[in-house]
Design brief:
Layout: H1 2-7, H2 12-29, H3 34-48, H4 50-62
């Protein structure tokens, strides 16, 4: 879902939200799929910058 937000809709906020959640789930499971989520997240950081990326994560943590 995060890839659709990123690639088809260019919606960085929802892309980060979905991809970060999937990354954390895959990380807890210990699966290699987390690398794909991490690669997408890295691409987003390069596109929008660290500051905006962390702002989106802060919104996610606060439940907004």
């Amino acid at each position: 879902m995060g890839a659709i937000y990123l690639e088809d809709k260019n919606d960085m906020v929802n892309a980060v939200r979905c991809l970060y959640k999937s990354y954390k789930i895959f990380e807890r499971m210990g699966t290699p799929e987390r690398q794909q989520s991490a690669a997408y997240l890295d691409a987003i950081v390069r596109k929008i910058g660290e500051e905006r990326y962390h702002a989106i994560l802060s919104e996610l943590d606060s439940g907004d």
